[in-house]
Amino acid sequence: MKMQRTHCPSGYSTTATACAAAVLLALAGPAGASSHREAPFITTVPKVDASDFYMFRSYEAERSDYVTLLANYLPLQDAYGGPNYFALDPNALYEIHIDNNGDAKEDLSFQFRFKNTLSAAGAGIALNIGGKMMNIPLVQAGAVSNVKDANLQVAESYSVTVVRGDRRSGTAQAATHATSGGTSFDKPVDNIGMKTLANYAAYAAKHIHSINIPGCNMPAKVFVGQRQDPFAVNLGTIFDLVNAPVSVITDPTLIGAAPNTLADKNVTTLALEVHKSCLTNGDDVIGGWTSASLRQARLLNGKPASGHQASEKAGGAWVQVSRLGMPLVNEVVIGLKDKDKFNASKPTGDAQFADYVTNPTLPALLEIALALPNTAPTNFPRNDLVTTFLTGIKGVNQPKNVVGAEMLRLNTAVAPVAFAQQNRLGIVGNILASGSDSAGYPNGRRPKDDVVDISLVAVMGGLCMANGNTDALGFGAACKPSAVPLGATAFKLHDAVDQAVVPLLSGFPYLNTPIPGTK
Length: 519
Prior knowledge:
Helix 1 (17-26) runs antiparallel to helix 7 and helix 1 packs across helix 10 (451-459). A hairpin with an 8-residue loop joins strand 3 and strand 4 (108-118). Strands 3, 4, 7, 8, 10, 14, 15 and 16 form an 8-stranded antiparallel sheet that branches. The chain has a 6-stranded antiparallel sheet with strand order 1-2-13-12-11-9, with no helix packed on it. The radius of gyration is 23 Å and the shape is globular. The chain is an alpha+beta fold. The chain has one domain (17-501). Mean pLDDT is 86; it is low at 1-33. The protein has helices at 17-26, 200-205, 235-239, 329-332, 339-343, 354-358, 362-370, 383-391, 426-433, 451-459, 462-467, and strands spanning 50-57, 66-78, 92-99, 108-118, 126-129, 132-135, 154-164, 171-174, 176-177, 185-187, 209-212, 220-228, 265-275, 285-300, 312-324, 408-411.
C-alpha cells in the first residue's frame, strides 16, 4: 500500500482552510505518487529503493494489444552525479510480479539481475603515461554513441528470468534475445553529459531489445536505463507538516500553480512491453507490483583486490527489502514502526496492515498540526478506500475472484486511449466529463495520470458522491453523506502541481530521455 504525496503550493495565504483540509485528507488514504526513502532500512540501500510502478495498455500506434510495465528504482538522481553515476546493484534481485487470478499470489514474475564489468576482460581502459599503462579514473575515455562502445570502461548488462508460479520455487526460464538468442542484454550508461553523449536519445534507443518470453508466442520488448523522473510533486512542502496554505487547491484553474521539485531528477527504469494474452489467465484483470531483494548475508573485504565492486561478497537466501504496487502507501499510510515490515511482506499477508487503510491516522495527525478539527471523513471503516485500492472497483478492475491485497490492478480488456485524449484524472475525470477514458488510474496507472489529484478526490469522498444512490462502484454502505464533509467539493481538489505537463515519449519506454549532466 504505497500512497500519494500532496501539498499546497508555497507562497499562498494561510487563511484558506479548504486547501489544508483537502491536503490533510488526501494523505489519509492510499493515494498515488512516487515513493522515495519511505522506510528506515531502505534509506541505507538506495539502489533497491522502488519509486514508481506503472502498468497500462500500450497507447503507441500499432501496439494497443500490449501491456507496458515500468518499474522505477534509485530515485532522486542528480544528473551530474559522477564519476560512477547510478548503475544498479549486481548483488540484488529486481522483480515485477503479476497476479492473474486474483488470489494475491504471484503467477508470473520477471526477474532482473545486473552485471557491471570492466572492459578488456576486467583490465579496464589504460593510457600510456610516461611509459606506464595506467588505468583511467572515469567510466568513459571519450565520446560514446554505440552499444558496447569502445570508449566505455564499464559495461552494464542484465538478464531477465521468467518464473511461473512462486517466485522462488516456480518454473524459471530465461528470456532470450529475439534475433541472437542470447540471454544477456546491454544497458546504456547514464546520461553523463552532452560532450560524452551528443545524442543520448538515439544512443538509448539502441538498447531497446526485442525478446522472446518462454511460454508466450508473441515477441516482447525490454529496456533498462536512466530516464527523467516522470512524477510531479512538491516534496519539501508535504513533509514539513504541509507547510503552505490554501484556497488554491480548490480552484481548478490553478492546477499548475506550484513548481515540480522532481523536474531536475532522474530515475532508473526497468521497462517491459508484453502482449496482454501472455499476462492474463481466464480473467481480463491482472494485478501487478514490483519488489527488490538482497542476500541475507554480506561480507565486506577489508583488503579488496583490483577490479570492479570487489569490496563485497553476498550470500544466503534472498530477503525482500522493497515493495511497491499502488503508489506511496508505505510512505504516508503505514505506521513508522511497520514500514520495514511492509517492505518485506507479500500481498497475501496484507490483512495485517488493513487497519492502516480502514482507519488512517494521518488525517488526525494533520488536524492537530494544522488546527483544523472535524474535517476528516468519518465513514469508518473506510471500505470505499478498501474497494478502490485493495480489491479493485466492481465492473472496472476487480478480478472475478479477488483476495483483498495492495497491488496495482489493470483491466486489460479496456482499450487504451491515445496520449492526447487521455484524461489526466483517469476514472475520476471520466466521471466528471461523462467521457470514455476508463483506462486510467486506479485502473492501472499511466505516466500522464495525475495520481495526486485523483487520490485527493477519492480520499475526500469524491467517488462516494459519484457512486450516488445506485452503488454503481460497488461501495455498498461505505459512503455515508454525513460522514463526507466536503461532499461534491472533493471533485475540485488538486495539489497545484500538474502531472500532465511532465515531458514524456509517445512510445516505449514512454518515459522521457534523462536529464544530462551538462547541457
